[in-house]
C-alpha cells in the first residue's frame, strides 16, 4: 500500500507541475534518438521521415534539413503527409527540450499503427548543441521586441490600456485557461490569420513560457504591427496571480 500511495503522490505531483493536459506519462513511453544517431542515419541516406511538429512559420525559419513540417495541432488534418507504409521510420522533433509536441505527435503515430517511431532527444536545441546546422526557407529578421511582466500587464488591463491581447497557444491550452479579454490565434495559424489583427493598437503576445512569442512578435513586426511580449508567458501570469487573484478564464469556450 505504501508503494501504491507513493506512486499516486508522484503522479499527483507531475499533474500539479505540468498541468492536467501534460504528456508526462506518454513522454516516457516514446523511444528517443540522440542527435548523433540521427546525423548518422541522414549521412547514410537511410529511409527516415523526419518531422518538425512546430508551426509553419517556425518550420520555414529554421529546421533540420530534409524535415517535413507537420504542426502537432494539425496532425489529424494532414494524415496524407505520412507514409502509407506503417513500417517506415518516423522521427519527430520540436522547438525545445521542454516541448512535448513531438511526444504527442509520436504517440498519435503509434496509435495509428506506425511501428518505428521515435523523438529527437533535446529537440532542435539538442541538434544545434551537437554542432549540426539548420536550414531556413524564409528567415524572419530578428529585432528587439519589448517585453512586459505579468504585474504590468495586469495594471494595463485594469486601467483599460488600449492593447490587443493575443494568445498564440493551442486551442486546447486556451480553453483550459487564459487571460480575460485575450483572443486566441494559435501560432500554427498565425501566418494565415495575422491580417485579422488590428494595426491601430499595440499587440501583446502570450505563449506558454515566453519563448515562442519572440519569433511570433518578429514575424508580426515585419508585417507592420506594434508588438510586445508577456515575459514568461502564461506560466509567469499564473505565478503572479497565485494567491492574490483567481486566474481569469479564457474566452475560447
Describe this structure in words.
With 253 residues, this protein is of the alpha/beta class. The protein has two domains: 2-129, Oxidized Rhodanese, domain 1 (3-Layer(aba) Sandwich), CATH 3.40.250.10; 147-241, Rhodanese-like domain (Oxidized Rhodanese, domain 1, 3-Layer(aba) Sandwich). Helix content is 39%, strand content 15%. The strands form two sheets. The chain has a five-stranded parallel beta sheet with strand order 1-5-4-2-3. A five-stranded parallel beta sheet has the order 6-10-9-7-8. Helix 8 (171-176) links the parallel strand 7 and strand 8.
Topology:
Layout: H1 2-18, H2 24-29, E1 31-33, H3 35-43, E2 48-52, H4 56-61, E3 68-69, E4 89-93, H5 101-111, E5 116-120, H6 123-129, E6 147-148, H7 150-159, E7 163-167, H8 171-176, E8 183-184, H9 187-193, E9 202-206, H10 212-222, E10 227-230, H11 233-241
Parallel strand pairs: 1-5, 2-3, 2-4, 4-5, 6-10, 7-8, 7-9, 9-10
Strand order of the largest sheet: 1-5-4-2-3
Helix percent band: 25-40%
The helix/strand class is alpha/beta
CATH superfamily of the largest domain: Rhodanese-like domain
Order of helices and strands: HHEHEHEEHEHEHEHEHEHEH
Question: Gap between N and C termini, in Å?
Answer: 40 Å
> Largest beta sheet, briefly?
5 strands, parallel
For the secondary structure, the number of strands is 10
Which residues form runs of ≥5 with pLDDT under 50? 1-28, 245-253
Separate helix tally = 11
Strand content: 15-25%
Under CATH at level 1, the class of the largest domain stands as Alpha Beta
User: Overall pLDDT, averaged?
Assistant: 87
Amino acid at each position: 500500500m505504501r508503494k501504491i500511495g507513493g506512486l499516486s503522490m508522484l503522479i499527483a505531483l507531475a499533474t500539479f507541475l505540468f498541468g492536467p493536459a501534460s504528456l508526462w506519462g506518454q513522454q516516457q513511453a516514446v523511444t528517443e534518438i540522440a542527435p548523433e544517431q540521427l546525423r548518422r542515419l541522414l549521412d547514410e541516406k537511410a529511409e527516415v521521415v523526419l518531422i518538425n511538429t512546430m508551426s509553419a512559420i517556425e518550420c520555414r525559419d529554421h529546421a533540420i534539413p530534409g524535415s517535413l513540417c507537420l504542426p502537432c495541432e494539425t496532425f489529424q488534418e494532414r494524415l496524407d503527409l505520412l507514409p502509407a507504409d506503417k513500417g517506415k521510420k518516423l522521427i519527430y522533433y520540436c522547438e525545445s527540450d521542454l516541448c512535448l509536441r513531438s511526444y504527442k505527435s509520436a504517440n498519435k503515430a503509434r496509435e495509428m499503427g506506425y511501428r518505428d517511431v521515435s523523438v529527437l532527444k533535446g529537440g532542435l536545441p539538442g541538434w544545434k548543441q551537437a554542432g549540426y546546422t539548420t536550414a531556413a526557407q524564409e528567415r524572419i529578421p530578428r529585432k528587439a521586441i519589448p517585453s512586459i511582466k505579468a504585474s504590468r500587464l495586469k495594471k494595463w488591463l485594469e486601467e483599460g490600456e488600449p492593447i490587443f491581447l493575443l494568445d498564440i497557444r493551442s486551442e486546447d491550452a486556451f480553453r483550459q485557461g487564459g487571460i480575460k479579454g485575450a483572443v486566441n490565434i494559435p501560432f500554427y495559424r498565425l501566418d494565415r490569420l495575422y491580417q485579422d489583427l488590428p494595426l491601430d493598437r499595440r499587440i501583446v503576445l502570450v505563449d506558454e513560457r515566453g519563448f515562442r512569442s519572440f519569433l511570433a512578435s518578429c514575424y508580426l513586426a515585419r508585417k507592420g504591427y506594434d508588438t510586445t511580449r508577456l515575459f514568461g508567458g502564461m506560466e509567469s501570469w499564473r505565478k503572479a496571480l497565485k494567491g492574490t487573484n483567481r486566474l481569469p478564464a479564457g474566452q475560447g469556450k
